[in-house]
């Protein structure tokens, strides 16, 4: 049986559908029962009878930061996909990020070792690789550089260290580092907010850029790596390196709205993150723009994906087709 932690997130829900559709026996963790409705919604994008797939999953409520609560998940498990994580770029959430991303991952690794799990796939992020050098492509071999790295990136990097620690203790592991994942169903978070923003016909776009990847390519790469003999390796997953202007133009055109044409100047961003900091201090509001986020926009991040292509002869799909698919589901 296969265990998927964080089964109610974007990656987790799509992974569950893929595994169940392939006839695999699957167990999934969740924190709030209401979030299973989101999974059903995602399944509905690919099936007219999503409940048939939902009912084939063994659902167990568990908090990954509570190792005792996690123990029940590992009964009769052979393979683990660790998708659960907290995504936040607000420095005020650092303690929670540590608790869930680092300590939670340590708990999963320890239980994998305790239960002699055959293989663990850890879903990390390009944020865990660190800031890339200007005008140079980042590879899996880049030295860790934490300059201008978000609190999220810092904790994902340290979570990876827990996975590598597990590999040194005998656990077979593989790590994937996806770029910004484009997929349907979560319109109020992650890349889903790109579609909401573009749909409003915004005139401006932020500078910089990063790597983007389709949810289907992430799932395919993960499952192929788990089925392979490859262990103790990490792989960047990026379809295309795009500027934010390019990605918003693609989404806007797909949605049938006017694409943004005016770049927000850096001086304005520098003012905005300071204003946002003051607003957070005075009103206790969540940070929407931080200093590290702005610094990261000063150049486009570039990622090289030769390693995954050579390791399993992997071919990335059509990013534009995924944008059109997401746009259709967003409009509906």
Automatic annotation (TrEMBL):
Q: Which domain of life is it from?
A: Bacteria
The protein's matches in SUPFAM superfamilies, at most eight in alphabetical order, are given as:
NAD(P)-binding Rossmann-fold domains (SSF51735)
Molecular function per GO? aldehyde dehydrogenase (NAD+) activity
Indicate the segments forming the NAD-dependent epimerase/dehydratase domain, all copies.
2-228
Point out the coiled-coil segments of this chain: none
Gene Ontology CC? cytoplasm
UniProt cross-references to InterPro entries, sorted A to Z:
Epimerase_deHydtase, NAD(P)-bd_dom_sf, NAD(P)-dependent_oxidoreduct
Pfam families named in the record: Epimerase (PF01370)
Stored PANTHER family: NAD(P)-BINDING DOMAIN-CONTAINING PROTEIN-RELATED, PROTEIN YEEZ
Q: Please identify the protein, giving its name as recorded.
A: Nucleoside-diphosphate-sugar epimerase
Species: Flagellimonas pacifica
